[in-house]
Specification:
Elements (H helix, E strand, L loop, with lengths): L1 H22 L20 E4 L4 E3 L7 E7 L4 H17 L4 E8 L3 H10 L5 E5 L3 H5 L7 E5 L5 E6 L4 H19 L3 E6 L2 E5 L3 E10 L6 E8 L4 E8 L4 E6 L2 E5 L10 E10 L7 E12 L5 E2 L1 E5 L1 E9 L5 E2 L21 H26 L7 E5 L3 E5 L3 E4 L10 H4 L11 E8 L2 E7 L8 E2 L2 E2 L6 E3 L4 E6 L2 E9 L1
Helix pairs in contact: 1-6
Length: 480
């Protein structure tokens, strides 16, 4: 049996090692690419020199985010390409922020000094930025335009020529956006509401509404605390639901639209049985096209509405509880694809050590036999259960089951007890024996007096009789 168990553990260990060293390194798709076209998640981290760094502080610049670790060979290689790009564009509203994964600050400082890195380096100690950016491998690069939108994502080593081409495209995108006459937002930006009540948000086009003939928008919210009741059209716009929270909008007339113009109204209700004090609704994107079908550049000036939830604490009064915004991303990230030689050695040895310890533990566990319990069943289905190998029963054990007049016939434990039950292991099984040596009034088993007769073997269903003032109390012995 132990050999079969060992074979199973060995099989799963081999599968684990094959996946780690052969399957994962060839995965080309990364969840990080899902962020392309979306607002880059903000973060606040501490640099290696103790300064607080937030992504939002660099809005209006082209940002290159570099997720790396000092032990990662490909990361070291890519740093040489980043130096060339940084030196070329650092005077042109361009910055690099390198985000180290979890490492000791002194180790990172040493790495920065050895590689003459001049740009900002921060450490993601708690892994918040790593989770928000859906990092599955390092190095991973993000190129973010001046409006905070993720435009390009690279997993693995990327050379300086590829980065240079994309940075030029970002400058072109910025110039196009700056010329855009279409601006949209989610309005209002903040709402205070009580649990169980309804509120409304508007998809608003602040400028350029007259140029739009059709478009679509996508919004998101936490359905654990908010319920979407309806999405209604506004003015001469028509709405078509595409799926879930994605809607297309269009208009048949070519009349000039007022500015600002409402495209749609979102009607929500705050659920009652919730504990949080704040949530948010996000306008993920809004696309627009003119009457000729040409795409219009759209700038989203405000994509978030913060919902502050007020909880009742009494019938006639309530207390407003508010906490700062806190976004929770549930994506679990446990695998780093790019593996250094040092990490490979650790990944190879740890499973072997764990498997060895598991086998030893299983062997020790299997060599032990669990002691079965036995029960003493009293009248009226009252039960005394024990798993003790050797137990003396006296007056104290029956106090809760018998009257005082009956208890005085049973010998106390400090006097030797009424009887004693002992378990003996025979051929990996346990047999139970009863003995009566010290009782004042003898114990009976199946109507036979056992006092002074040594150990008597108990069988399942045997009746132990205790003396009481009206005769004997019948107790059924039952082993599990």
């Amino acid at each position: 049996m132990l050999f079969k168990l060992y074979k199973k553990i060995s099989f799963f260990l081999i599968i684990f090692l094959l996946v780690q060293f052969f399957v994962l390194p060839i995965i080309s798709y990364s969840n990080s690419e899902e962020l392309i076209g979306k607002n880059a998640p903000d973060f606040t981290l501490e640099s290696i020199f103790g300064k607080t760094i937030s992504l939002k502080d660099f809005q209006g610049k082209i940002i290159l985010l570099d997720f790396f670790a000092t032990w990662c060979g490909p990361c070291r290689m890519e740093m040489q390409y980043l130096k060339k790009v940084y030196n070329e564009y650092k005077e042109k509203d361009f910055i690099i922020i390198s985000i180290d994964l979890y490492e000791d600050i002194e180790k990172v400082k040493k790495f920065v000094n050895e590689n003459d890195i001049e740009w900002i380096v921060v450490i993601d100690k708690d892994g918040i930025a790593t989770r928000n950016y859906l990092i599955e491998a390092i190095p991973t690069l993000f190129l973010i335009d001046k409006n905070g939108i993720v435009r390009f994502v690279h997993v693995g080593v990327t050379d300086d020529s590829s980065l240079r081409d994309e940075i030029v495209k970002l400058y072109e995108i910025t110039q196009t956006i700056n010329k855009s006459t279409v601006e949209a937002c989610l309005y209002p930006k903040t709402v205070e509401i009580r649990t169980g009540e309804q509120f409304m948000l508007n998809i608003l086009i602040s400028t350029g509404g007259s140029k739009i003939q059709a478009g679509e928008f996508l919004f998101s919210f936490d359905d654990k605390c908010l319920q979407l009741l309806n999405v209604t059209k506004e003015l001469s716009w028509e709405l078509i639901k595409i799926n879930y929270n994605k809607y297309a909008f269009y208009r048949l007339s070519k009349e000039a639209m007022p500015e600002p113009t409402k495209v749609a109204t979102l009607i929500f209700k705050v659920k009652e049985d919730i504990k949080i004090t704040q949530t948010e609704v996000l306008l993920q994107y809004l696309k627009a096209a003119d009457a000729n079908g040409n795409d219009l550049p759209v700038t989203i000036t405000g994509n978030t509405s913060l919902i502050h939830i007020i909880h009742y604490t009494a019938i006639t009064s309530y207390t407003i509880e508010w906490t700062p915004p806190k976004k929770t991303i549930e994506t679990k990230i446990t695998t780093i694809v790019i593996i250094s030689d040092q990490t490979k050695f650790i990944l190879f040895t740890i499973p072997i050590i764990v498997a060895f310890i598991s086998i030893i533990s299983l062997y020790v566990y299997s060599s032990k036999k669990k002691i079965p319990k036995y029960s003493l069943i009293l009248p009226n289905d009252q039960i005394i259960t024990s798993s003790s190998l050797d137990k003396v029963y006296g007056r104290e054990d029956f106090k809760r089951y018998l009257k005082i007049d009956d208890l005085k016939y049973i010998t106390r434990r400090d006097k030797g007890g009424q009887f004693r039950i002992t378990a003996k292991k025979i051929n990996r099984m346990y047999d139970y024996y009863i003995i009566d040596e010290y009782s004042t009034n003898s114990t009976l088993v199946n109507d036979v007096v056992i006092k002074g007769k040594g150990y008597i073997k108990l069988k399942n269903g045997d009746i132990i009789k205790l003396p009481i003032h009206t005769g004997y109390l019948n107790i059924i012995f039952k082993s599990s």
